[in-house]
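Ticket #4471: structure output looks truncated?

Reporter: J.K.
Steps to reproduce: submitted the chain below (359 residues) through the standard prediction queue, then opened the result file.
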Amino acid sequence: MSKRSYVEEALSDWMKGNGPDTDVVISSRIRIARNLSGHPFPMLATSQQAQDVMKQLTAVAETGRLDSCGPFETLELSQLSELERRVLVEKHLISPSLANESRCGAVMLSENESVSIMVNEEDHLRIQCLYPGFQIKEAWTLASRIDDIFEEVTDYAFDERRGYLTSCPTNVGTGIRSSVMMHLPGLVLTQQINRILSAIQQVGLAVRGIYGEGSEAIGNLFQISNQITLGQSEGEIIENLHSVARQIIEHERAARQRLLDESRVRLEDRVLRSYGTLSHAMIMDSKEAAQRLSDVRLGIDLGLIGDVSPQAMNEMMVLTQPGFLQQVFREKMTPEQRDIRRAELIRKQLYSETDHGGV
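Returned output as attached by the reporter:
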């Protein structure tokens, strides 16, 4: 797979597939943070030291050790434009932090983009595995396997009492972050979301936006992840998230049913108004697009809208991001120009998706 494919195709292959509970859970992710013993953490490393780490880690893919997990391609951040790096962030293939590290950063991407291995981000190595739907245990199995491959040929920074050592103290211990991206419009519309989120935080989980820490939850998308990495085993961390996410799924489905039972006409009106706006608007900012796409996605999942697939909504959520818009239209845009192009792109996508037939 070429660099062009990674930065020009909105949907990763894994996003096109179906997974369990995809009506509520968009994706499941495991991220493992590791550092090499005897090397300064990236924030303290010189350019030469960072280059040495990058060569050592990317060699693992180049020598074919990762082939059992699928073909990989290594992209050095210094060889990518600012726009291309932004596109990779919008596809969740690299972090905003790595996108800003164009000096000695790299990413090893699997062909279907379900695995992203970042080098010289906050830590020397960050292994990320993404699965569609609610498959957090499956994502952990793959991530652990890749972690074992690297550990066979590198010497990780590890302390018998503290566990794996990381740049940020909150990652010390297991070094893993497990998360699920959830679409929770039912809980938002029934005004239960604050109570649910408060309960989540009380059991040691964090709630963030679609791009992780510091990002805003837009389009009713919430990322639920573990906060604790020290004092619990990997299995306990995964099981805790799995159990809580399962309860949230049931609460969200109950909230959606309540909306159908108690205010179906209002719900249909909201969904169809958003569909109509998306189909005909001439200008639209990213927040409005995210909210109206969320409404339509809810309508699809509840059977209120036909002829539009959930995958099409996933694609439009990526395509309408600022970087991807400029990549699609191959022009640098002002915010207002992006709003005009965003509306144009959504109109075309919906027109194509419904085969001119409407809802």
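Triage note (M.O.): checked the attachment and the full token line is present. The radius of gyration is 21 Å.
Status: closed, working as intended.
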